[in-house]
Structures are given as structure tokens and as C-alpha cells.
């Protein structure tokens, strides 16, 4: 039965549908209130260029009927996560927003976190970026005497002597001692800075009366810093409820989403997203929000436009979905919509041009190699120093963009970590594609290896041994170490126009693989050197060594460490002196 016949027989019921290409790979997953109406719409009437491109790649259709729209949404999300279809918008590389956490420990700390799934602790945010969150934590640590150290030292550290810590390391500090401090910090993070400002102003006045003008000036700067840090846009909604305001706008090509995070009556941060869409805009937004709130805390209330199906979101997110019609709430929603529209107008041509250039580059690369368009590319690069500490990296590009969460690092095990490029490539490719087979992972549309005949021969041997038929090419460099030409699986050389988009596309992948491999090699080499030096120092055991490795990122930093700072880590006088004497030798 052809897929067009399947469309005719689809039921008028909710469910999820999956489009497959000629290789049986799922390229798009959608959901619908009526499967028959939604899927039929792809094959009737005219469509824009991007949707036509999707339709041209459809070779088969599958669908699953569900009992409700909510079940259809849940199924759609699970299938997207399972298949990672190239035409679906994904959040795999979107970072979560930073929050400030008051840790739920016996001796609590104030820290920046992106992990919002942990229970039983106080979270405040989101913050627009990590710098804003860290600046706030820095302020709080300066004002309030909470614990600063990750591990408890054996004696009071500098923070205690500066009045910025209660020193639970040497004193018996109870939960009751911390209670008023925690309460003041929570008030501060909720936007009520009056108590803190009053306290600092009193301290500034007392310092002036004692003629301690430098200290008074420090208090003044701290007060100004607090006012700057907390000076976010005030929204007049007559309540302090946490809510998100979601506006979206679209044209024939792209969809733009704008989210305002309202916390304690102020806009604490905003989120913008612009992407291609292939389905009903409102349902695409619903899908995006379902993915978005799997990573971000769900507020008590969300404002949305009339086009969205509030009941599905309400049941999925278990929160109030409001569609404001008038007043201050409607004005705020209109502001989010306006921002989404402006973002769309500003970036449409740039994004459209970038997407089209990348798509053409992928298609051209496929034509040059006489293969299907490689929508998933896995590129490998090796790095070593005279054969020592050999490592390899794999970077992944999906739809022409780096998919960083799919990157992989490999420590080479061949020949006691002293390997030729040939042996390294052979080992790493075998490990990678044996895992692909065993775990039933996605096969790439193209494997790129950094190198020529040696590397291609190694790759061919691995693929043959695993009975895998995956397109392969080598990136061959010239004498100046610049990309020169491609070497195919059957050892045919393909010259590249150095001014072409496809050349720049390939170079970008190669540069990314090289960067990732070099960075990993530096880490391994540095760690190996560091460990070997510490192993040779008398009276430095494994626990102490681990503390030093966590505190200092290089031998040079350790050399410069004051004796007192080393002792704060728990080193004895003898250990600290041995360490500094050993490192001071010309090594």
C-alpha cells in the first residue's frame, strides 16, 4: 500500500504521525486532533519551499491513534526524543536558565545552579545569564556570613576573619543560628532589599563616625551594586505571583517565540527562539513549550494567545493557562507578541539565508560524493604529542549545525597509549560503530575522517568488519595544513572550490573536530603531568592530592599558593612545606 493510500484510510481521530524517508528513517513526527485532516493537508494545495522540501523526502507514513489530544502530545514528545527527526524543532542544545539555590545542607551555601529537578531546596530565578546570577551570589556572599567552602576545612579560613562566614568548621553552628540569615537572603532574592539596604547604611554611617572612610566607601559601593543588580523592569499586575508570558508570531517560513519570566512582580529574564516549522503554528508552539518546561520550572500561571489550546497545556503542565482579554495582563501579553514579531522581522532574512546556504552545502556535498544528502555527519580527529597521550574526538552535525550533546571523547587504548594515526583511527571507529550497532543508535549519513589514505583504509577495514555500509570521506590537507580535497571511500580524489559554500561548510566541521580534539588532549596531558608530579611528593596522600587537583588547575597556580591557603585545604605544616619546596625546584 502506498503512503498516499494510507492517508486516505486514516481515521478522523487524535494521534501522532511519523514521516519516513526512502531509507526508513523517521524525518518528522507530528500530532493532530484529526489525523486524517492534518496529514491530508500536506498533500493538497501549494506549500512554501521548506514544507515542499519535507514533502519531497516522504516515502512512507506511519501513525498511532490515541484516546485524546493530550495523549497525542505525550506520544509525539516521546517519539521526537526517540528518533530525533531532522525536521522537528529540538531543545537538545538549549541551555537551561541559571537559578540561585540556597542549599539544603546542615551548613547551607548560596550557589548558582542549572539543575532545577533536585527537590527540597530553595530556588530563585531564572536569571537572564550566568553572569547576572554569579554577581548576585557574589554580593550575597559578601553581605551574609554563610559557608563558602565546598569542603569543610580543619581551621577557620580567611572568610571568617573578614566577617563573611560563621566558621562552622571550628564552631558549633546550629540551624537556629542560620535561620535569620536565610530569611534575609530569601527576602533579598524575592526583591525586598529594604532590610539589607538599611543594615548596610547603618554600617556605613558607623564606619564614617569611626573615621574609617575606606570601609564606608566599600559599604556605599555595595549598596549601589545591590540597587543595580535588583533594578529589573517592574510590572504592575497588583500581585506577586510567578508567571510566564508567552507570545509568538510567524510568517510562511519561520516561527518566533518570546517568553517573559515574571518573578516577584518583575521581569527576571526573557527567552527567545526562532525556527522553521512544518505543522500548524499553534500546535508547533504547544510542542515547543512541552519540551521547554521539561527543563524549566513550571510557574503557577502562564499567559498565552487565543490560538493555543489551553486545555491541553493545562493538563500536560498542570498549571493555570490564562488568555488575557483586557487590562494590564493583556498589555503584557501584547508586549511579548510584539517582541516575537520584531525578532522575526529582524532575523528572518538572515536565518533564512543561513538555513538555505547550509541546506545547499549539505546537498552539494552529497552530490560530490554521489550519496544521499548527509543530514547527520560524524567527524573524527586525532590528537597526540609524539604518540603520547593519544586521544580522539567525534563531533556531530545535524542539519548542518553542531549537535554538541552528541559529541564524544575517546582515550586511545591501543599500544599502551602510543599509537599511530592509523591504529588510533581504527580503534576509535570500531569502538564508536560497534556501540552504534549494539545500542541501535542512528547511523550517520556521512563519516568524515581527518586525513587521507591511511585513515580511509582504517575506516574501510572497520566498516567492513562490522558489515556496515556508511558513506565515508577523508579531509585531506595541503602542506600548509589547510583543507585541500576530499578522498572518497573508494580512494577517488575530489577537488574543492576554495570559494564555495560547501568548502566553508566542510572546513567548519573539520575545524570544530580539531578544536574539540586539541582541547581534550590538553586536558589529558595536563592531568597526567599533574598527577605524576603530585605522586612524587612525600607525605601527599590520595585524599590530599584530590583536594589539590580540585583547587588548582595548573602546577603554576599551585606554586604561587600561599602557605596559609594550602593549610586551609587541610594540609599540615609539613605537607604544605614539602609541596612548595618540591614545586619550587626547577622542573
TrEMBL record:
InterPro entries: GIY-YIG_endonuc (IPR000305), GIY-YIG_endonuc_sf (IPR035901), GIY-YIG_UvrC_Cho (IPR047296), RuvA_2-like (IPR010994), UVR_dom (IPR001943), UVR_dom_sf (IPR036876), UvrABC_protein_C (IPR050066), UvrC (IPR004791)
GO terms under cellular component: cytoplasm; excinuclease repair complex
Domain UvrC family homology region profile: 245-463
Source species, domain of life: Bacteria
Gene3D superfamilies: 5' to 3' exonuclease, C-terminal subdomain, GIY-YIG endonuclease, UVR domain, UvrC, RNAse H endonuclease domain
Domain UVR: 194-229
GO process annotations (BP): nucleotide-excision repair; SOS response
Pfam families given in the database record: GIY-YIG, UVR, UvrC_RNaseH, UvrC_RNaseH_dom
Gene Ontology MF term list: DNA binding; excinuclease ABC activity
Compartment annotation: Cytoplasm
Keywords: Cytoplasm, DNA damage, DNA excision, DNA repair, Excision nuclease, SOS response
Sequence ranges assigned to domain GIY-YIG in this UniProt record: 12-89
HAMAP family for this protein: UvrC
Record family assignment: Belongs to the UvrC family.
Function (record text): The UvrABC repair system catalyzes the recognition and processing of DNA lesions. UvrC both incises the 5' and 3' sides of the lesion. The N-terminal half is responsible for the 3' incision and the C-terminal half is responsible for the 5' incision.
PANTHER family found in the cross-reference section: UVRABC SYSTEM PROTEIN C, UVRC/OXIDOREDUCTASE
Subunit structure: Interacts with UvrB in an incision complex.
Name recorded for this polypeptide: UvrABC system protein C
Species, as recorded: Candidatus Xianfuyuplasma coldseepsis
Organism placement in taxonomy: Bacteria, Bacillati, Mycoplasmatota, Mollicutes, Candidatus Izemoplasmatales
Gene field: uvrC
Amino acid at each position: 500500500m502506498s503512503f498516499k493510500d494510507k492517508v486516505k484510510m486514516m481515521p478522523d481521530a487524535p494521534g501522532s504521525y511519523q514521516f519516513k524517508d526512502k531509507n526508513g528513517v523517521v524525518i518528522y513526527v507530528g500530532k493532530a486532533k484529526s489525523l486524517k485532516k492534518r496529514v491530508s493537508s500536506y498533500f493538497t494545495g501549494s506549500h512554501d519551499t521548506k514544507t515542499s522540501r519535507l514533502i519531497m523526502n516522504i516515502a512512507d507514513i506511519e501513525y498511532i491513534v490515541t484516546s485524546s489530544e493530550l495523549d497525542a502530545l505525550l506520544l509525539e514528545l516521546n517519539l521526537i526524543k526517540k528518533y530525533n527527526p531532522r525536521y522537528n524543532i529540538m531543545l537538545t542544545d538549549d541551555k537551561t536558565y541559571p537559578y540561585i539555590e540556597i542549599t539544603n545542607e546542615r551548613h547551607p551555601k548560596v550557589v548558582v545552579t542549572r539543575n532545577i529537578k533536585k527537590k527540597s531546596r530553595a530556588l530563585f530565578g531564572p536569571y537572564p545569564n550566568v553572569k547576572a546570577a554569579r554577581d548576585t551570589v557574589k554580593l550575597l556572599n559578601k553581605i551574609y556570613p554563610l559557608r563558602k567552602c565546598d569542603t569543610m576545612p580543619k581551621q577557620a579560613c580567611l572568610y571568617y576573619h573578614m566577617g563573611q562566614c560563621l566558621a562552622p568548621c571550628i564552631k558549633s553552628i546550629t540551624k537556629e543560628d542560620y535561620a535569620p540569615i536565610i530569611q534575609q537572603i530569601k527576602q533579598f532574592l524575592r526583591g525586598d532589599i529594604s532590610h539589607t539596604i538599611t543594615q548596610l547604611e547603618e554600617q556605613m554611617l558607623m564606619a564614617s563616625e569611626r573615621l574609617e572612610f575606606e570601609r564606608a566607601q566599600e559599604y556605599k559601593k555595595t549598596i549601589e551594586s545591590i540597587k543595580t543588580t535588583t533594578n529589573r523592569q517592574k510590572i504592575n499586575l497588583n500581585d506577586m505571583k510567578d508567571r510566564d508570558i508567552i507570545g509568538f508570531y510567524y510568517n510562511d517560513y519561520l516561527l518566533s517565540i518570546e517568553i517573559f519570566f515574571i518573578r516577584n512582580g518583575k521581569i527576571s529574564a526573557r527567552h527567545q527562539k526562532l525556527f522553521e516549522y512544518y505543522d500548524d503554528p499553534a500546535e508547533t508552539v504547544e510542542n515547543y513549550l512541552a519540551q521547554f518546561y521539561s527543563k524549566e520550572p513550571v510557574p503557577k500561571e502562564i499567559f498565552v494567545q487565543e490560538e493555543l489550546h489551553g486545555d491541553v497545556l493545562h493538563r500536560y503542565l498542570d498549571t493555570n493557562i490564562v488568555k488575557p482579554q483586557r487590562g494590564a495582563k493583556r498589555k503584557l501579553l501584547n508586549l511579548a507578541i510584539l517582541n516575537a514579531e520584531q525578532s522575526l522581522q529582524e532575523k528572518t532574512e538572515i536565518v533564512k539565508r543561513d538555513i538555505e546556504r547550509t541546506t545547499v552545502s549539505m546537498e552539494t556535498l552529497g552530490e560530490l560524493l554521489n550519496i544521499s544528502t548527509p543530514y547527520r555527519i560524524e567527524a573524527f580527529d586525532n590528537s597526540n604529542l609524539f604518540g603520547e597521550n593519544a586521544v580522539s574526538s567525534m563531533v556531530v552535525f545535524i542539519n548542518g549545525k553542531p549537535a554538541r550533546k552528541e559529541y564524544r571523547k575517546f582515550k586511545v587504548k591501543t599500544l599502551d597509549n602510543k599509537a599511530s594515526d592509523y591504529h588510533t583511527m581504527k580503534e576509535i571507529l570500531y569502538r564508536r560503530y560497534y556501540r552504534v550497532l549494539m545500542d541501535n543508535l542512528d547511523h550517520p549519513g556521512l563519516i568524515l575522517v581527518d586525513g587521507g589514505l591511511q585513515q580511509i583504509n582504517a575506516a574501510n577495514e572497520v566498516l567492513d568488519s562490522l558489515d556496515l555500509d556508511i558513506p565515508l570521506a577523508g579531509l585531506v590537507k595541503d602542506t600548509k595544513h589547510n583543507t585541500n580535497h576530499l578522498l572518497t571511500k573508494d580512494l577517488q580524489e575530489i577537488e574543492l572550490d576554495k570559494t564555495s559554500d560547501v568548502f566553508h561548510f566542510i572546513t567548519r566541521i573539520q575545524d570544530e573536530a580539531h578544536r574539540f580534539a586539541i582541547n581534550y588532549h590538553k586536558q589529558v596531558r595536563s592531568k597526567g603531568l599533574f598527577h605524576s608530579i603530585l605522586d612524587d611528593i612525600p607525605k601527599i596522600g590520595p585524599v590530599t592530592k584530590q583536594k589539590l587537583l580540585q583547587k588548582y588547575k595548573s602546577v603554576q597556580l599551585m606554586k604561587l599558593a600561599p602557605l596559609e591557603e594550602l593549610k586551609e585545604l587541610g594540609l599540615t605544616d609539613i605537607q604544605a612545606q614539602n609541596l612548595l619546596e618540591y614545586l619550587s625546584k626547577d622542573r
